[in-house]
Specification:
The chain is mostly helical. It has two helices and no strands. One of its GO terms (molecular function) is calcium channel regulator activity.
């Protein structure tokens, strides 16, 4: 992902990159679609959890969260 604000273009770029990576793997080393989907969705859920935990914890501070 590029530095700066996340946008739809960056999201689409990441999706395209992961899709292209999937097809560059040799066929005999590929994971089944279901395993690949479950693994990537587990990573996405983890990222969302960490993001919202970070937002929640930054609300608990009295100072400017950006200065921590």
């Amino acid at each position: 992902m590029l530095f700066g604000k996340p946008s739809k273009a960056n999201l689409l770029e990441e999706i395209q990159r992961s899709h292209v990576k999937r097809f560059r793997e040799p066929k005999h080393e590929r994971r089944p679609w279901r395993i690949w989907f479950l693994d990537t969705s587990k990573q996405a859920i983890g990222m969302l959890f960490i993001h919202f935990a970070n937002v929640y914890l930054s609300d608990l501070t009295e100072e400017d969260p950006c200065s921590l």
